[in-house]
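re: that chain from earlier
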Amino acid sequence: MKEKNRTLSEHESKELLQNHGINFAEEIEAQDIDAAVEAAEQIGYPVVLKINGDAIAHKTERNLVRLGLPHAEAVRGAAEGLMNEISDEDGAVTLLVAEMVQGNRELIIGFSVDDQFGPLVLIGLGGILTEALNDVVFASAPVNLNQATRMIHSLHSAHLIQEEFRGEPATDIDQLAQAIVDVSSFFQSNESIVSIDINPVIISEGQPIGVDALVEVGQPYDLNNNSPMPNTKQLKEKFDPLFNPNGIAVVGVSSHPGRFGSVALHNILRYGYQGKVFPVNRDGATVFGLQSYKDIDDIPDNQAELAFIATPPQHNEDILKKAHAKGVKAAFVAAGGYSEADEQGKKLEDQLVKTANKLNMTIAGPNGQGIISTASNLCAQIAAPYPPSGRISLVSQSGNVLSSLMNHAIRTNIGVNKAISAGNSAQTKITDYLNYFATDDSTDVVVAYLEGVDNGQEFINVINHFTSKKPLILIKGGIANEGIQAASSHTGSMATDNIVFQGICNQYGVIQAPSIGDGFVWAATFATQPMLKGDNVVIFTTAGGWGVLAADAISGTDLNLTDLPKEIIESINELVPSRWSKSNPIDLAGGETRDTIPQVMDIVASHSNIDAIIHLGIGIQSAQAYAFQSGKFYDDKELELDRLVEFHQKQDERYALAAIESSKKYDIPILTATELVNSDRHYGNPGPTTIKKNGKVCYASAHRAVKALETLNQYRKYVQ
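^ sequence. v structure.
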């Protein structure tokens, strides 16, 4: 029978934590009222008086705390009153007398054990409104000083802690971070710790001082001993047959072109897969010009490393065995009707995995959409989107989300390298694909759509390994979590699926995207822009309002809208009339000539103090050119509107190329944004069109460009 958890008294909790380096207010435990008065005299007035006992947790809710007692009579009277509040259910109690710590900022530092993600540490706003305010950040324990500092900066109310507040000095962040580190590592020396609450931690004269604490003990937590990370050779052996097979057997091809097997076969052929293709159709029919094989037994030996299986679940275990006998090393199971359907489907899925493991075969799915590998012109999927080739890889637990991501690739002309719909992830999970993509030289960044985490500790290990090598953009659906064990603690009561998951992602440098579109555009930014070297940003615009909006967007980030260096101002003064802004944002105020924008772009990009440029206003001239070109006066030769149109269009093309060339020349991100990208499809505006044709993102607004740049900065700071 599992032993029930036990909450230590406040005094015992503090003694335990104090021995581990946590700083608390001075206090004395008194056995009776007279001893309490003596303790108050020793500490010095004013003092705080509390009831202390193993059965007494949250004293404030029961009015078992007296603050600011100024003299002995007040202490005696308060002690008598508190003792009268005690019931038999409270058991043995003592009195705690403590110094009165003054401060307007109250925090909570806590620890708890989550059933899904294991040991967690917390920092947040504390006091009696801890749960009500719920401004908290969780992280996987233990944390280091850098991680603890990032936790503090991640609070919504971080500025109240970091800056002077109501005449009080700014908090000593190093000391506060050290306290988080100490609490987070405490469980390593005492495995029976279930939860810790230090609440409140009062910021007094800039120093964090704990004034209340509870420690809950119970059964030792069993840390998951995850298997070691697979090496590159192991991962290639497992996944190369899936993404780069020498041939494909498509099992379950129908003469009906709308069935899954036939759709997959069509797409494999349509997009020019470079390997051999073997359709399997029980009637031996000719489908899309290829003669089918009646059974997978009939295909040549060792000519197909991948089987795409679109047959009902009851047949697929036998198909796996036959495929393995023909030299197939991996299978994508598109069919549904497995664990997502019913208990019988779950049994079939478990048996399929058992068989695959016995055969040492890799299986993806079941209940998945398919596989993309643009390097092999492979489109083995039951849906149409096939993206251009590039450096982004995609993995999704949803086929529809995968299609959406690839449609964004098509729209932006930013390419994808590999993509897979994980489906039920029966054998091969999202974390397995991440391990593979981390070692894949053709993948620079990954976008993942995730709905559930089977093993929280494994997930933490994988993302920690992945983000040390490459950026990971995560779009989250629903994350299953069975909850916090420590129900009696504030820390446990505040831990929700989303808050814990967000904290862990932030801890390990995972960038969470709120939408599919944002997720892909951010990944595209990583794939097509140089990495940031610092946070100094210049806004360069030919339209004042856009510059103002971009500056507003930057103000809410860690990016720095830097003051223009004197050298840049002097150089621009030589090129344009004096009415230009002479500040950041750089607004030329209509004083530019045909060569000015490329020249200014080069001047700014070349300066050693500038780390990135937000480029605004492209395409305006071409928009007017289109108005000329589509109007009734365009054919009037005397007006020579055709020459004007050509001039405007060539200028916008020059401006786009100037941004691209300066970015490459000086190795800094230059992000071009214009809302005219939305009209590009109608008349081919040369500004955004040139950006897209050259493999860069043209952002639809200044805000989106700033947000994308912020993700680069977020990852830069993490890897540093």
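The mean pLDDT is 89.
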